[in-house]
Amino acid sequence: xxxDYSPKGVQFFYLxxxxxxxxxxxxxxxxxxxxxxxxxKEAERTLGSGIxxxxxxxxxxxxxxxxxxxxxxYVLDPEGKIFVKRAWSDPEELRKDLERLVxxxxxxxxxADLDMKVADPPREAPVGIVPxxxxxxxxxxxxxxxxxxxxxxxxxxxxxxxxxAEFVEGGxxxxxxxxxxxxxxxxxxxxxxxxxxxxxxPPDGVIVSPSKASGPKVKAETDxxxxxxxxxxxxxxxxxxxxxxxxYFACTDKACFPVTQEYLIHWDVDExxxxxxxxxxxxxxxxxxxxxxxSMVERMMSRDANGDGKLSRDELPTRxxxxxxxxxxxxxxxxxxxxxxxTAQRIRSQRRPE
Length: 354
Fold this sequence. Notes:
disordered N terminus
């Protein structure tokens, strides 16, 4: 946002960046700029907001330039000079900034004044039908290159590959391979036709097991759950990417048609991969009980800008930074999930019952 020096006073902008939490409310990471623009239209529909959106490039150039924070906030002048920047948006502090830079208003706007009619995300089929595998919490997204030029169809289904810490550090460990329906295309799984099938083509020296598999047999005629697989892999020191081929039927209420698509799986961590929310979509959007240790840990860890599984002092809200030394119980200069949970439980135990 920036100061306009005109009668309008201040203009606000949303910035579309990489999804910090793919799978949240069912949305998955787009693979083209056109799909990002589809996400913006969906955000306008579901939020009911008239604020203008700015769309980052597919290589996330602006996100990287402004520090990779998932919920950052900037106040700029018309020439682009930064007056205020913070790694995490804070509405109360922003109001103070604007009063200082532009001046106070007689009738401050509240959230209720906006009358934002939040709409539900699209759903084409039931979820919670197919059990999800237990995935270790230390998995990190690997970089994927969808082979767009080899497909005649949009990527109705999006692949996601994650690697365990052991694999990232030593080249041997577990891989997660997931295929997620993109809700913006209005397709679902039709379990009366052949299930999804994938095949991996490891380069010389790379071992992956299983290297091919099919999706589960599902009794329900339709569903929208992801098709997920856990693999064991040995990179063997190779730097060559691994080819992934996937075949599936993209189905609507009127027709099903076969689709074959390819990806290249790279071995480096995708810094823009985000952290997925693997709860069933039917449970998403339901916050943890207010004040519970889980709600605080989830809220704080969402500020992990670089995805390293721990928080520095600067990544915490200003009001929490003064308690940083007490939270950092091992004195390593960071706060991890275990330390956050311990802090949340301590705070909760000190509260009086209502």
